[in-house]
Specification:
single chain; two-stranded antiparallel sheet
């Protein structure tokens, strides 16, 4: 039963790693896969070109900031929601709240971006209509660099917080009821129970998921950024993944794009390694 999964990982995750060699050569596209190993070896030429380009700092900054803001504002929300939803005694009401918050996760990214464009349209968007109703001036949200990160983070948190809370809800529900009853007998309030029982009980789960989330700090979702950004907001919206797409697919600079992508992967690995090591020292909880 596990064979299809193994085959999928071999074909789509491990086999493409051979293409990393492209980062150190002058790839010859016309020769197909054979051109991967027939190109002239150039060492760190493409990495040096990227670091010397005027876009390097901007790309790393934008990628890190958008992922960092998503982590800071998006990671605690599922935990808070899980704490709130598990305190609802009515089972039908609790299930209805969970279902309603899970649904946005299953909406296609293309549809979500279409909704964002419609809601934030300067002429017909409901947000600008409300601004005009209260006497304000319409704002071209998607055309102003200073608004892009806010839109990206808020829409991402709205779409994923319900689904991401599933693990935290399961962890909270796994806490033995005897512990709750013992604390209630001792006169503990709900706030005390949450602070001294629930949060310490789910701490290992929170730490493990935080380490895994750190692995995405340099892997900002390509689809949403690509569908929402425009040249006018490159200053704050252009990230490494979209730059790699433009260089590799649109400009056919395959070796250069591969080098930038490899640099991104190495930075991601370093962040995960440091986060795991720090967690192991501070909390005795780690992935490995």
């Amino acid at each position: 039963m596990i064979l299809p999964v193994v085959i999928w990982y071999l074909i789509f995750c491990y086999l493409p790693m051979a293409g990393l060699y492209m980062s150190f050569t002058d790839f010859v596209p016309g020769k197909g896969l054979m051109g991967l190993f027939q190109g002239k070896f150039v060492g760190l030429k493409w990495f040096q070109k990227f670091f010397e380009s005027p876009y390097a700092f901007r790309l790393v900054r934008n990628t890190f900031l958008m992922a960092f803001y998503s982590l800071i504002f998006g990671f605690p929300i599922p935990i808070i929601f899980a704490l709130c939803i598990t305190q609802i005694r009515s089972k039908p009401l609790r299930q209805a709240g969970q279902v309603l918050t899970y649904l946005p996760y299953f909406i296609s990214t293309v549809v979500v971006c279409g909704m964002i464009n419609n809601f934030l349209s300067p002429s017909t968007g409901i947000i600008n209509q409300m601004i005009e109703f209260f006497g304000g001036t319409p704002i071209n949200f998607l055309g102003l660099p200073e608004w892009f990160r806010t839109i990206y983070v808020v829409s991402g948190s709205w779409q994923t917080f319900g689904f991401n809370s599933i693990i935290f809800v399961a962890a909270i529900m796994a806490i033995p009821q005897d512990l709750y009853e013992a604390m209630r007998v001792d006169g503990a309030s709900k706030r005390t129970i949450i602070w001294h029982l629930v949060l310490p009980s789910i701490k290992p789960t929170v730490v493990l998921l935080l380490i895994m989330a750190c692995g995405n700090l340099m892997s900002v979702g390509f689809e949403k950024v690509f569908l929402l950004y425009s040249p006018g907001v490159y200053e704050t919206a252009d990230v490494i993944s979209t730059y790699v797409y433009r260089q590799g697919i649109e400009s056919s600079n395959y070796s250069y794009a591969a080098a930038v992508g490899l640099f991104n992967s190495l930075v991601t690995f370093a962040i995960v390694f440091l986060a795991n090591r720090t967690s192991r020292k501070l909390t005795d909880t780690s992935v490995w």
